Amino acid sequence: MTIRERTEQIEKETLSEFATLSSETKGREKPVAKCEFRTEFQRDRDRIIHSKAFRRLKHKTQVFISPEGDHYRTRLTHTLEVAQIARTIARALRLNEDLTEAMALGHDLGHTPFGHAGERALRQICTRRFDHNIQSLRVVEKLEGGKGLNLTYEVRDGIANHTWGLTPHTLEGKILQFADRIAYINHDIDDAVRGKVIKSADLPEDSLRILGHSHSSRINTLISDVIHSSIGKNDIVMSDKTLSAMLELREFLRRNVYSVSSAAKTEEGKAEDIIKMLFEYYAEHLNEIPYYNVNKDKGYDDESIVTDYIAGMTDRYAIYIYSELFLPKGWYKH
């Protein structure tokens, strides 16, 4: 018996009847030989961590565009916090922690530069709707390394369906939906207070009375509620009282932090303009896109190629390319 087979046996003996077993995965689009040591979901986690798309997340916006302070979240630190919360819930419910971690680490790989401002700009200029969850799926299925990561069905399903309103096919995918929201609501509050966009005293007292008055106590309350509400169920849920308090905090953030009138969003109009101008430029200069002909030979249409290129940029690379293309350079001659 290999180490992987022993791990698969331990899963069968110890995980919940509702867990997704790695030995029963629906598999990959391209079958590959099994690893001697790692389960299929562990391999997916490793493939994501070693990808270039994952590394680029460190220079993509979470809330604040190109923040100067060292302690503001980026899309990468957001992803790591989501993965930690998701693993905690999965372990407590005896669901598949490796599957949960893999989909959490990959859920934002397709996010645009400048966060949701970049996503909004692409939605406005593309003829087809742009959604970062679908772009994340495209990254792992087709774009990374020119051929995708060939992940299992379950991880791809969790990535594609991590946004609210969609229905993942596994409980691990449902955990990711809650973990994503728990993470961003709380760390966005933390960053907004640090950036003096809001004050802790501004937060709605009714929510704080239920969830807690500190960052750690709110996260603990929300995670605990999901665990206690979901034990023994073939579903992942949150109690009505706690869910209502969490949504009240999110609504507070929408009005005071995510709103275009917020101090945190003063640069977003400029960021959207950068994305739109880059899109329009590359739509007219397709041969300047790296590997354009290669992607064209794969059957990708021009709009998809432009969108893939821009969505894959980091904040600073988008700004650099914009400055190279559109800002005048001083004259210099020896």
Which key terms come to mind for this protein?
334 residues; Hypothetical protein af1432; 16 helices; 59% helix; flat
CATH topology: Hypothetical protein af1432
Portion in beta strands: under 5%
Range of helix content? 55-70%
CATH class term: Mainly Alpha
The tally of domains stands at 1
Number of helices: 16
Query: Distance between termini?
Result: 72 Å
Rg (C-alpha, Å) = 21 Å
The arrangement of helices and strands along the chain is HHHHHHHHHHHHHHHH
Which stretches are poorly predicted, pLDDT < 50 over at least 5 residues? none
Task: Give the arrangement of secondary structure elements.
Blueprint: H1 3-14, H2 40-49, H3 52-56, H4 75-92, H5 97-106, H6 115-125, H7 132-143, H8 153-160, H9 171-194, H10 205-211, H11 215-230, H12 240-258, H13 268-284, H14 292-297, H15 302-311, H16 315-326
Helix pairs in contact: 2-5, 4-5, 4-9, 4-11, 5-8, 5-9, 6-13, 7-8, 8-9, 9-11, 9-12, 10-12, 13-15, 13-16
Any overview of this molecule?
The protein is an all-alpha fold and 334 residues long. It has a single domain, classed as Hypothetical protein af1432 (Orthogonal Bundle), CATH 1.10.3210. Helices cover 59% and strands 0% of the residues. Helix 2 (40-49) packs parallel to helix 5 (97-106) and helix 13 (268-284) crosses helix 16 (315-326). The chain is flat, with a radius of gyration of 21 Å. The mean pLDDT is 95.
Quick summary:
The protein has helices at residues 3-14, 40-49, 52-56, 75-92, 97-106, 115-125, 132-143, 153-160, 171-194, 205-211, 215-230, 240-258, 268-284, 292-297, 302-311, 315-326. With 334 residues, the protein is mainly α.
